[in-house]
Amino acid sequence: MKAKRIFTFFFSFLLVIIFAQKKQDSLKIQWKYEPNFLVGFDVLNAGIGAFSDRKLFQGFVSSKVKGNWYAVVDAGFEKNIYQKNGYDAVVSGSFLKLGTLYMLAYDQENPMNGFFVGGKIAGSFYNQEYKAIPIRGFGGSDASQAFPESSQSSYWMEINIGGRVQLFDSPFYIEAIAQPRYLVFSTTQDEIKPMIVPGFGRSSAKFNIGFSWNIAYHF
After folding, report:
1. What gap in Å lies between CA 59 and CA 140, rounded to an integer?
2. CA torsion through residues 193, 198, 199, 202, sign
3. Any idea where the domains of the chain sit in the sequence?
4. Segment 116-149, tens digit of pLDDT
């Protein structure tokens, strides 16, 4: 009788282990994440930089999260010059954007193709130098004042509206995106409003619209 109880206990314990292992395996299959990354580079602004004072280099990484939702991370560097209305400023720095995209309409055979909309929060960390800022001189004459280089930061929100299409049967894709932006906050040097924010563009107004034309590779 004692041996029978031991055998029954051992058999029951073995069944519990097998059941638990199967349950664990099924959960692993259910929650298994398959790499689905899209890595891209903005060729439009990089190309324009060869013919203008604005040197902008930016890229992104996106991954499908669930359903039609994608997580996106953008990073880049910009160097620019602002010379207008008596201002002479040089700005350079990096920026980072975090956000999500939602596929509004897509190809049933390839869900990566289609139109999307999304939102991002962004921050830029940069150095600025004002070589000249217009001030009112003695007797109402025009004059200017220079300020040394300083480190500043700015933060904004933006909406992304665009489309993506695959290049033939290759793993490459083309994206075209419009980016309406709203500047939320900027640090200042002696209360001087920044004229240019890397990644945002000219910041003399709170609203701005950017455009990008990306070539991306799907892993």
Report:
1. 48
2. positive
3. 1-32, 35-218
4. 999 999 999 999 999 998 887 666 667 888 999 9
Strand locations in the chain (E): 37-42, 55-66, 69-84, 87-106, 114-136, 142-166, 172-186, 196-197, 201-202, 207-218
pTM across the whole model: 0.80
Grouping H, G, I as helix, E, B as strand and the rest as coil, residue 23 is helix
For 35-55, the pLDDT digits (tens) are 589 999 999 999 999 999 999
Positive or negative torsion for Cα 176, 180, 184, 190: positive
3-state secondary structure of 49: helix
- Nearest alpha-carbon partner for 93 in 39, 120, 131, 56: 56
Which residues face 95 on adjacent strands?
76, 124
Asked if CATH classification 2.130.10.10 holds for the domain at 35-218, the reply, yes or no, is no
Please, which residues bridge with residue 6 across strands? none
- From the list 55, 7, 27, 36, the residue with the least C-alpha distance to 217 is 36
- DSSP structure string for 179-192: EEEEEEEE--BTTB
Give the separation between CA 59 and CA 40, rounded to whole angstroms: 5
Residue type, 172: F
